[in-house]
Amino acid sequence: xxxxxxxxxxxxxxxQDMPDPEPGPGDAIIRTEACGVCRTDWHLWQHEWTWIGMExxxxxxxxxxxxxxxxxxxxxxxxxxxxxxxxxxxHLGCGKCEECWNGRYNLCFAYGAIGVHHDGGYGELVRVxxxxxxxxxxxxxxxxxxxxxxxxxxxxAYHGVVDRAAVRPGEWVAVFGIGGVGLxxxxxxxxxxxxxxxxxxxxxKLAMAREEGAEATVKAGPxxxxxxxxxxxxxxxxxxxxxxxxxxxxxxxxxxxxxxRHVQLGMTGIEDAGKIAIPMDLVVVKEIRIxxxxxxxxxxxxxxxxxxxxxxxxxxxxxxxxxxxxxxxxVLTAMTGFQTRGFHxxxxxxxxxx
Length: 354
Ligand SMILES: [Zn+2]
Ligand SMILES: [Zn+2]
Description:
Oligomer: single chain
Number of helices: 11
Distance between the termini: 11 Å
Shape: globular
Order of helices and strands: EEEHEEHEEHHEHEHEHEHEHEHEHE
Helix content: 25-40%
CATH class of the largest domain: Alpha Beta
Bound molecules: zinc ion
Number of strands: 15
Strand content: 15-25%
CATH architecture of the largest domain: Alpha-Beta Complex
Largest sheet: 7 strands, mixed
Low-confidence stretches: none
Number of domains: 2
Mean pLDDT: 94
């Protein structure tokens, strides 16, 4: 099979022929129809996130946002069979630990993440460990391309908005950082009836947020919390940091109403290296709740996929371009300068150079 692999940090991915993966007893082999190129891949390629144990064993084939068809199953797999069309949350549920038993598959760290600890969807074929407790069947009307557009950004946004923030219709939701995750949050929160304010330093991204349903937009900067407080007449009920930086987390918390909820979706980059100074006294006197949100447990996919199948949610709208595997280095380089506007999805391995 053809695959693009990180062989050396910060160096172009190498596009090469690799042996087809073989399934272990609980594994499934997926033929990738489409795979998203994600800022997570960029962070890993830059050798960041080592502070939370995300060290790659190079060479590594990245890619944790894909959908496709099962071509082979190990003999212990019971819920899936060859020919099933599936998507793969980046978090692998072992199915045997307390988190998995409680439905928190996204918090099972037993097998790590696909594309990080196991080769992922930048390859034409992917071995998915622990298939029965990881794979999600795609309903009619949701193709592999749409599945790639779902995750991790869209599915992370869904879990954050619906499960962690429990956003209700009519609530003000201010979204900081309008990249792929932020646009997903805008679309999902709008679809469930929230009033959304998008915050970005880019006019172009604010215009895109309006197209996804944002009612108001605010330019990022020192005045953003005051502007949001003015628009909402007292502060947002929910703020979402979709980027993960002190320049987004802190103004987000400053923009909350009393009893507001802040959801942290973005993880930090090298500037903050995992630590952000939070206005903690404000958290106390306003009874603010801060919730982290990671991925999306399998148990929440049914609701999300039903909204996608019925057309209420449209993750594929957020795809900027479908690309060939040979183009991934160009996409990752563009991410360095924040020049990508939406998702890029790999849909072809055929013309790959060797
Ligand atoms: Zn588990
Ligand atoms: Zn991702």
